[in-house]
Specification:
Number of strands: 8
Oligomer: single chain
Shape: globular
Order of helices and strands: EEHHHEHHHHHHHEHEEEHHEHH
Strand content: 5-15%
Length: 353
């Protein structure tokens, strides 16, 4: 059975504002341990460490060209997908989904139509520091993720106060539901059990949408035994166990259909799995490139050289965009509202036995 090896980077749970880890992502590679070991030996013949770790290897300039060649080989000859998201943008998108959209839904407005939620989230992410005040907007995001986690009357009240402390009159379409009306439908959505700001579900949803297309038939997933991947493991098992027949259109190139072709997920010791180590290299490189391209860090591999290795179908990213016409076309006919509701009902919150 075909097996995708996956690894993640940048996971910080519900806190999407961690300044040291702006990006989160994961990579999946359909490669055997035998082929992975062969590639590692071919491209890094002097490797002495018991385990291939991207972070350690990228510190040495002498390894850079070898790592680029290794990834080129993987991307050319094996099925793979890498996903990276800007966690701050994702948090703003979640704010729009739960603290804004329910207000419009109650008034019969199709807020998700043609990606309007992405357009508003992009505008907020890029313009809110000027429109609303940088510190005030930062405080609003902190209050939102706290309210989504705690769900207490005090936390929800603090969220409304944080919205009112911004210059919300500059953008009443986005901040008015909380600041002007303290909309009960929005506060109720945030307080719904299972609603949270953990990005693992978003990351896995994107990976699976591509793995399902790439897999010729039934397939399985292996990943490392790290603590962070326990959340991913639980979600993958839920996806596997879900046997209801349903399909959602996400974008012009992506959809998600249940039941999945994915039939099994297992944990392995990455020290004994060269294939999992290659997944670590793929996501480590992508996260480093994102940090370098946005000026958050420097050093490591040339980000332009890294990104040039990927075909369009091999790389998925979630970043803000003010090209609203492109977003409208890309997300025309999306079933985002139905998908969010379905995932909140079936995959969020504690796992049912």
């Amino acid at each position: 059975m075909e097996c995708f090896r996956i690894d993640e980077s940048g996971y910080t749970g519900f806190d999407l504002l961690n300044p040291d880890q702006r990006f989160q992502g994961a990579a999946a590679v359909a490669i055997s341990d035998e082929d992975a070991a062969r590639l590692i030996k071919e491209h890094l013949p002097r490797l002495q460490a018991p385990e291939l770790k991207y972070r350690s290897l990228s510190r040495r300039p002498g390894n850079h060209e070898r790592l680029i060649s290794l990834q080129r080989d993987v991307l050319t000859h094996f099925k793979s997908v890498t996903y990276v998201c800007d966690k701050r943008f994702l948090l703003v998108l979640m704010f729009v989904d739960y603290a804004v959209e329910p207000f419009y839904y109650e008034r019969g407005i199709g807020f998700y139509e043609n990606g309007q939620n992405y357009a508003m989230a992009s505008l907020l992410t890029m313009a809110a520091p000027t429109l609303l005040g940088q510190a005030a907007f930062d405080n609003l995001l902190v209050a939102f993720q706290h309210a989504a986690k705690e769900k207490t009357p005090e936390a929800l009240k603090a969220l409304v106060a944080a919205a009112r402390a911004t210059r919300w009159q500059e953008f009443p379409e986005g901040l008015g539901p909380l600041a002007q009306y303290a909309a009960p439908e929005c506060l109720s959505a945030i307080a719904t059990p299972g609603v949270n700001t953990d990005a693992a579900l978003v990351v896995l949803q994107s990976l699976i949408s591509r793995m399902e297309v790439m897999a010729d038939g039934a397939y399985r997933v292996e990943h490392d035994q790290s603590k962070n991947l326990l959340t991913y493991h639980d979600l993958l098992q839920r996806f596997i166990d879900h046997d209801q027949e349903i399909e959602f259109r996400q974008t012009e190139i992506a959809s998600l259909k249940f039941p999945l072709k994915l039939t099994e997920v297992s944990q392995v010791d990455s020290k004994t799995s060269p294939a999992v180590q290659l997944a670590d290299v793929m996501i480590g490189t992508a996260i480093e490139a994102a940090n370098n391209m946005t000026g958050l860090r420097s050093g490591g591999l040339d980000p332009e050289a890294v990104m040039s290795l990927y075909a369009d179908h091999q790389f998925i990213h979630l970043i803000p965009s003010l090209n609203f016409e492109e977003q409208r076309r890309f997300r025309q006919g999306t079933q985002a509202s139905e998908l969010i509701d379905y995932f909140s009902t079936n995959f969020a919150g504690p796992r049912k036995s």
